Structure formats: C-alpha cells, structure tokens
Amino acid sequence: MTGETDGDEVPTAAQTLRYRDAPRRRQAIVECLQSAGYIGIDDLARRLGVSEMTVRRDARRLHREGRVVALRGALKLPTLDGGTGLPAAEYRDRAEAAQAAKMAVGRLAVADIRHGDVIAVDAGTTALEVVRALPRMFDGTVVTHSIPAIDHLLGLPSTKTIGLGGDVYRPSCAFVGSVTVETASRLRVRTFYLGAAAVDARGIYASADTERLVKQTLMSIADRVVLVIDHRKFEATAPVFLCSWGRLSMVISDRPPPPEIRAQLREQGVEVVLPPAE
C-alpha cells in the first residue's frame, strides 16, 4: 500500500508526519498558518504530503484546542482573544475611539479605489475602516498584515486577499517581522493606505519600532501612499519617526490639519481630502 514501509526501508518525511508523529504534524500546520495567515485544506495536504482527510482530522483537533479556526475548505489563525471573534482588548478600545471619524475617513478612501484595484492596507484602526467600507462585491486585490482586516475580507467573495504572515504583534493585531517584510517586498500595489500613531510638522510617526519596517516596506511597493488618520492624531505624540510629508501622495482625515502641518503639505504638494462641509 502506498505510504507503508517494510523491512529496513526508511520512511520519508511525509510518511513520518502522517503515521508516526501527529503532534508534530499538527504543529507544522500551525507554523504554516503563522507564515501565511490563511491556507486551504488542499494546499496544506500538498505541503505536508498527506491526505486532505488527515488534514481535516488534525484541523478538528486544533480547532477544539483553540489553535486554529476551521472554515469551509480552509484554516486561519484565531483572533487574539482566543477565537471569540473580538480582537485584543487594547486594540478594541482604540478601534472604538472616534469611530465615527474613522468611518468617515474610510468612506472617503474607498471613493478613490478603482474597479479591479490592487491596494495595501495598514494595520491601524483607521486603516481597518478602509477595508470595512469596501463594497461587498469589490473585485480587486487587498494586501494586508492586519488580522482584523483579513478576517473581514474573508466575507467579501469577489476580493482577492493576500495576507502577510509573520510574527503576531498583539498591540496592533498584526503580523510583523522578517517573514512579513520579505513577503511584502515581492509585491506591487497601486495604493498603500497608511495609518499613523501621530503626526506633526516634521512628518508621520509609529508607536513602536516593531511596526516601522513593515510600514516602510509597504510604502516602497506602492505607486502612491495615502495617509488615513482621524483628527486626534494631529495632537498625539509617538516615538518612532516613519517618514516626512513629502513621501505621501494624499492625506485623508475627518478634519483639516493644523496650520503648521497644512503649510508642509502645501510645500510638498500633498493633496488633502476632507468630508464635504455641512
């Protein structure tokens, strides 16, 4: 029978995974998901050299243990609270702050997205509203390292989602690290919707150096970079400098920037998009 060994024949790695070491095989499934974020059952079966039935059996076990989320024909990583569908509390609190303003920014951003567009979306809570504002039948491609964004995009049947796997950074509910950067560097997008922890006359800031390299890599693969922020970021402070205003093509916000920032935007030729005056 195929896959069996007799005599002194040494089993292949695939046979070892299939017949001798189910815990190691299940760990391999989790590691594949940590790299890709979302994987089809058939793809996992090919990668591991086992049957789809074996993968499904492992998936049921991993799902019961809370290590993966089983979908129809695929697996994904659980959200950061252990699979209840809610992100980490810190992230959730940020997402709920100034939510109406963020939603307004998201709607303005989507008005600029074309049929069949290829975009990248940052891991911030304002950038998430760009994804949430996409029409259900959006037929373009979205590249993102945001776990909540990937989760939402699974419900858009016509959208191609490229999830950038890597190490989970819990404060942002996002993937970061060398795997994320390497995967992103091989891609190209028309627009990257960038989030920020704070801005001032000098430029844009991130809250942690952990996020900086991923953001800068996504900026480098984009034809244009659009900053999406709510008005609170004009008064916030953050420690990690990301880029100057001249690196941007557009700023979308719910309120006009203060005079010192507005002067920099004019000087650098950066377009500012705001909601229509009431």
From TrEMBL:
Coiled coil: none annotated. PROSITE patterns: HTH_DEOR_2. One of its GO terms (molecular function) is DNA-binding transcription factor activity. InterPro entries: Carb_Metab_HTH_regulators, DeoR-like_C, DeoR_HTH, NagB/RpiA_transferase-like, WH-like_DNA-bd_sf, WH_DNA-bd_sf. Signal peptide: none annotated. Residues 22-77 form the HTH deoR-type domain. Keywords: Transcription, Transcription regulation. It comes from the Bacteria. PANTHER family: HTH-TYPE TRANSCRIPTIONAL REGULATOR SRLR-RELATED (PTHR30363), REGULATORY PROTEIN, DEOR FAMILY (PTHR30363:SF58). This is Transcriptional regulator, DeoR family. It comes from uncultured Alphaproteobacteria bacterium.
